[in-house]
Every structure is written in structure tokens, then in C-alpha cells.
Amino acid sequence: MDRAFAFRDRVLSSPRFIRFAETFPLTRPIARREAGALFDLCSGFIYSQVLLSCVRLGLFEHLRGGPLARDEIARRLGLGEDATARLLTAAVALRLAEERSGGRYGLGRLGAAVLASPGLTAMVEHHGLVYRDLEDPVALLRGETKARDAGDAANPAADKGTHLASYWPYAEGDTSADRDAVSAYTALMAATQPAIAEEVLDAYDFTRHRCLMDVGGGDGTFLRAAARRVPALDLVLFDMPAVAGLADAKFRAANLAHRAKAAGGDFTKELPKGADVVTLVRVLLDHDDDTALKILTSVRAALPHGGALVVAEPMAGTRGAEKVAAYFSLYLMAMGRGRPRTEAQLRDLLQRAGFTAIKRCATHQPLLVRVLAATF
Prior knowledge:
Blueprint (H helix, E strand, L loop, with lengths): L1 H11 L2 H9 L4 H30 L1 H5 L4 E2 H8 L3 H13 L3 E3 L4 E4 L1 H7 L2 H16 L3 H5 L21 H5 L11 H25 L7 E5 L5 H9 L4 E6 L1 H13 L6 E5 L12 E5 L7 H14 L5 E6 L9 H13 L7 H10 L4 E5 L8 E6 L1
Parallel strand pairs: 4-5, 4-7, 5-6, 7-8
Antiparallel strand pairs: 1-3, 2-3, 8-10, 9-10
């Protein structure tokens, strides 16, 4: 196989063969498709900036009520005629907008999907930090961190090296951050959580349990969704103390204080007992193997015999969602810890933590999240 792959690589890297493939009728469609994929790789950053421009200017919101003429779009966005034309040309090419009758423009299929996903809009805005940390990706890969900005010199957090490490306080193992320090990332996670919560709640039947503890549960968005889905379920949230305080306030506002409580601490050490099912929703991928194993060991110690753990996160190697690994590999490196794992790697960690029965629970959107349930 190695010799076969070596031959393939020599052929595909030959300009002469590429030219032949582009002109031969049977290979021409394949050559065009591969050329398009390569162009997308080269142009991806510009695509992302078109999307960011649409989000920040509120283009999709303006088109929500129906198609508009270009001059009206320019007026609403506060752009000149030429800039508006360029933005709309790019948005149409990316299926974010569509040309309609009478020279008007309406929502494209992907633009409409953005409107349906507030969490996606929040992530698009958040990526401003990611782009700054990936300005020199080779330096990041080599561990050559540097002062982030001249204006950061007086910022004690600047010695963390990246914007993402400062954005996520727990990236440096800091569980003592105050409410101000955790509010931004907690809000981001809450904005992106609803779609994930519905996937997890569809994939696993929580009605068989009496008490659910969500570890690393942020402001309780997942638990509030679980409360609506399973009215008889008692709820416990465990997170950093400042985050737990935010969750408590949200539980009270949702009239859930009688069945939902929040506790703060370090989930690598000891967790409260009493729950018969624990969820880790997008938690393990934020941590390296040693820390992930400590979290899983803490969860097992907190569960009764026969209790269940539900792990929900994007997984590398997922058919049809392979690009998850490309995204999270560098994102988490910029954050300073964590990695996307395959299902096999997660199963190995679960087994090392003492879980013996592990099964996959199918989700509707594996690109967003996949689910493993484990017992012992």
C-alpha cells in the first residue's frame, strides 16, 4: 500500500498529469472538483471575513423581512454603492444571499441558516480572537508565543501568550476567576449550547434517571433544556465557583430553584455525590489526556454503581464531519490545552477511568456533537 500511495502522490503532483486530467473528458469533472476544493482552502479566510461582515452589518436581519433593492441595502448598512455591490457579490457566491427579481437581493439558504442559529453568530464574532492568535500559525505550532499586542504589556494576562488562553480562564487551570472574568465565555457557551442540548436530549433517554449532574455546565443552559424535557428530573450543575453563581441566578429566574442547584469547585478533584447520571457536554476536548482522565475518574467516584456518564462533544474521525479535527486542532492549541479525539480515543479514556460498558448514541448532526454513554 505504501508503494501504491507513493506512486499516486508522484502522479498527482505532476503538472503534466494535472494538465492531462483537466483536458481528458473522463477525468475533467474530478479535476475541476479538486481544483475547487483547493481554491476553497486558499480562500477560506476571505470567505470567513465575508460572513463576519454580513453578521456585523446585520445583512441577514435586514433581509429577514423580504428582498431589498441594492440601494436600500446600502442605505441600511451604511455602505457606499461599490462596497455594497462587492459584499453582495461575495455573499451570493457563498450562498449567504440570493439575487431576486427586479434587481433585489434576498436571503440565501446559508444566510437563512445563520439566522436560525444564534450560537453560530456568536462564534463568528468570537473568531476575531482566533484570527489574531493564528496570525502566525507556524509560530503557534513551534510554541513561540509573544506579547499579544503593544497595549497588552501592562495586562497581567498577556503572559499567557494568546488571546484565547486569556479568554478561557480555565485554560490555565484557574478555578478562582471572578464573575467578570468568566461572564464573556460563559455567555458564548450559552449562546452555542441550545442546539447541542437538543441533540444530546434526543440521543439519550434521561427519563430513566432521577438526578442529573452536568459537570462544566456553564450557566445551566443544558440543564434548563433538560428540565423542560424531563420534568421529574432533579438537576445539579458543577463548574468553577463564579460560573456556578451565574447558573444559580439563571435557575432562580427560570423558577427552577426547587429542583436545580449549582455547586462550585475543581472537577478534577472531587464532585458532589447523589446524581445517578452525569453529563460532560463539550468538556473533555478542552483538556489534555491527563486532565481528562482526572475528570472521568472524579465522575466515576461520584456515581453510584450502575450510574451513567454521558459524554457529548465533536469527535475527530467522524465520517462526513472530518473537518472538525482541522478546526479544533489549531483552535485548542491556541487556547493552550485540549485536543479533538476520535471515538476510539474517548473509549480508551473511559475504560482507563473504570467505565466498562460504553455505547454510542446516534445524533442527528454528528458535525455538532456525538454522544457516548458509559456505565460500570
